[in-house]
Write a structure and sequence with these properties.
The chain is of the alpha/beta class and about 350 residues long. The chain has 13 helices and 8 strands. Helix 10 links the parallel strand 6 and strand 7. The C terminus is likely disordered.
Length: about 350
């Protein structure tokens, strides 16, 4: 008994000498490392999986190959859109966002490192980045000076912008000059995206009365110029909403019908930063309409495109056909072949 007590005492002393508790700092480091490991493991295991994929929803083209059903969101302007916010938004909903657009020339006020961080964040989630229509300010300030415009285009390209929107809502510019600017933009390695509309003075969120007094153009003017710009190399046409669905007493649905009938669906995008407006476009063009919306509306539009939710007029009424890519070719004409046994 005495020998056993001595043995236990010796063992206890040995343990105290050789096994010391972790310091508080070491313990915190270990805990932090474990948390990061768990989060990384959890993230990698759940990435790109949808636990409710067994429920029916509309089929949309994969983001990497999508040419219809594009969603472009507004970045910083009405509200700050920070790198952290954009990163988290696109982590959750990037599958339904194809492009990020700056508005009002906001990017020209940002420090270069912060601007590059925003652009890089969008690119890391597979989104293109658009300048918005700030070219109007550059044109008016420079008097259309080619050297100044070239410097602007070069700076945009070097910063990582992909798309340069060419709007002229506030300007009077000859159509040939506009077309030349499209070619000039392409030569600088940027995708030109002219914005056309029927409203004179569009783009400044003016009042209904102000826009009414300015007057509108015939829809044919819009369509003719859009065709000219596509021939000049425009990769897509943005349709200005003011005068059509924005800041008007009555929507000009006749203009929307004329545009969608005359121009290829994969070459036009409608401004639709209002839930009622993008719901109208989805109702009339289907789930694959190309739309520009506010960043705060991503989820609502995604639910509408996939047909899982909506309002009284759209709930359970927006549908797609999975075989559309196999049955439709250029111009949207059906290819009449026998149904595949896989269907």
């Amino acid at each position: 008994m005495h020998n056993a007590t001595l043995a236990r005492s010796a063992l206890s002393q040995t343990l105290r000498q050789n096994i010391r508790p972790l310091s508080l700092r070491s313990a915190r480091t270990l805990h932090s490392t474990a948390l990061r490991s768990n989060r990384s493991s959890s993230s990698s295991s759940s990435s790109h999986t949808h636990p409710f994929a067994f429920l029916p929803a509309n089929a949309l083209e994969p983001k990497a190959t999508r040419s219809k059903g594009l969603t472009e969101i507004r970045g910083p302007y009405y509200a700050p859109v920070t790198k952290t916010y954009l990163d988290e938004l696109l982590q959750d909903w990037g599958e339904y966002v194809d492009g990020v657009k700056f508005a009002g020339g906001a990017f020209s006020l940002m420090p270069e490192d912060r601007l590059r961080a925003l652009i890089d964040t969008a690119h890391s989630h597979g989104c293109y980045v658009s300048t918005g229509g700030f070219i109007e300010r550059v044109l008016s300030a420079s008097g259309g000076n080619k050297s100044v415009i070239s410097k602007y285009l070069t700076a945009c390209k070097n910063l990582g912008f992909d798309v340069l929107e060419l709007s002229s809502g506030f300007l009077s510019i000859p159509t040939d000059d506009w077309a030349s600017l499209i070619e000039f933009t392409s030569a600088h390695g940027l995708k030109p995206k002219p914005e056309v509309g029927i409203q004179w003075g569009a783009g400044g969120d003016a009042s209904v009365e102000e826009l009414e007094s300015a007057g509108t153009r015939d829809p044919k003017w819009l369509i003719d110029r859009a065709k000219t710009f596509l021939d000049a190399g425009a990769y897509m046409i943005m349709i200005e909403s003011e005068g059509i669905t924005e800041n008007v007493k009555n929507w000009r649905t006749d203009v929307i019908s004329a545009v969608t009938s005359a121009l290829p669906a994969d070459k036009i995008m409608f401004e639709a930063a209002d839930p009622d407006v993008f719901a109208y476009h989805i109702q009339n063009q289907g789930a694959r309409a190309n739309l520009f919306i506010d960043h705060s509306q991503v989820v609502q539009l995604a639910c509408l495109r996939r047909g899982i939710w909506g309002t009284g007029s759209t709930f359970a009424r927006v549908v797609t056909f999975e075989g559309a890519g196999e049955h439709f070719r250029k111009g949207g004409r059906a290819v009449h072949t026998e149904p595949s046994e896989e269907y």
